[in-house]
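ok so I'm stuck.
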Amino acid sequence: MEHAVTVFGEALVDDFSTRKVVGGAPFNLARHLAGFGLPVTMITRIGDDANGQLIRDEFARFGVRESGLQTGPGEATGSVHVEVGADGSHQFTIVPDQAYDHIDGAAALAASQATQSSIFCFGTLAQRDPQSRAALHALLEQTQAVRFLDLNLRAGFVEETIVFDSLQQADIVKVNEEELQQLFKWYCHTCPDTVNMECISVDTECRAMMHNFSLSALVVTMGARGALYLSADGAHVADHGATTEGAFVNSVGAGDAFNAVFLMGRLRGWTMEQTLARANAFAASSCGHAGAVPQDLSCYAQWMEEWMRSGTTDELFSAPGVTS
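replied:
not stuck anymore, here's the structure
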């Protein structure tokens, strides 16, 4: 059986003035999944411009299916202007009215229906425009796949009403600590301190929120402190992370790296303990290279081989340039 995944959302270019880097959380996720050999359909929209060609090149490099890639003549490919301060801090300006704001619903449905995916992934930024939001709703109405929501809040670009609707549509939700605190403020009676994710008050509020939104699972990433998994059937699994080997470059895209391995673990039937440990390790390793995804795609096969040796009986995926 083909473990296909559909990813909906923004593919864009981070513009540092001196260089351009392809990004967008959904596209980072799609590339990682494809790097591990999973069949991935990425539903997004780009313009017929130089930035759009950079994204097309990444579709080809990773082997992401192009059936969901739309091109809008005269539209601008999504971009984010990045300013780097003297202290190394980054200031981001997410450009409005980009191609990914105008995803065509009919074309998206055709691409989705051509693939029977096991998991459907979506976020919130690509819902800022009614057109792309309507396309997503049409896809969610027809899919039978497990719905994975990476909340990925962006201040000033995501309204609470969109978050509320997205939570209602999701089966599994992934948030970081800051996002969890925001959800507590919006939807819970109290706002417990997440410094201690093992405390009863955090667990109680998380489970109340899961019940109210009919979620099957909630995943919380905590940076260097690891991740926590809660399920509607009472499971509580924590992994307290992995140290970054080598020099720390940045944490850009670490959450997307975590998501990819978490979803792969679900598809491959790994235990949750295995899944969280491997997702944390891969996310930590992503902090050691510039950009959200690696330049050397052979690393995906190396990770799979390491996990094979550590006890899983799954066969090795075919990754780009790698035969199993």
